[in-house]
Amino acid sequence: MHGSSQTPARYSRHLEMHRTDRIGWLRASVLGANDGLISTASLVVGVAAAGAAPNAIIVSAVAGLLAGAMSMAAGEYVSVSSQSDTERADLEKERAELATDEHGERAELAGIYVGRGLDPELAARVADQLMAHDALGAHARDELGIHDFTAARPLQAALASAASFAVGAALPVLAVALIPRSGLVPSVVAMTLVLLAVLGALAARVGGASLAIGAGRVTFWGAVAMAVTAAAGALFGAVG
After folding, report:
1. pTM, to two decimals
2. Model confidence over 118-138: pLDDT tens digits?
3. Helices and strands, counts by H and E, the chain
């Protein structure tokens, strides 16, 4: 027996999590952690290959951690702020058009729905109802492609990038502090490759991609980065 106060099943709200809900912070976090790990490990390997003393290696690693974290935060903030400014300008333009030409904007919205497969009559009714409910929101979503879960959040992206970079970079720094100089380079290389594979697989798992591909591509480029810096460090060490 169904009570009259119950909401029909076809109208009940279906709540589910999608991977796109976390794309903003996930991208910044994964990028920051990978960058922190690769750049700091490469720095350690390069300086060590040049024959530097242990104290010089750890100072270089800590400096790389701090500079990299600040650089990531600043770069991400500026980049995402530019996106946010563009979105804000588009919304202001749309708000002005709605105020001066509501009929034209309604027809434009209906045309979008026709293009997506609705017949003109139904598209017009949908546009009418959405315009009555939230005209700017409807145009932001369906005309401009601006959604809540993809909207630019500069501060969030900057903090996520800086924090994740610092976490990734802290591991090579700890390795320098704990591992004897004689075994430092092979230990840092091995640790970095394993951690990069884990990070790549984790990012792929959260994003719904192949674990092997996600782990393989980030590990490959990490190995290339450390090989290049090791070669440069050995070259300059030999010259010096």
Report:
1. 0.67
2. 888 888 888 888 778 877 777
3. 7, 0
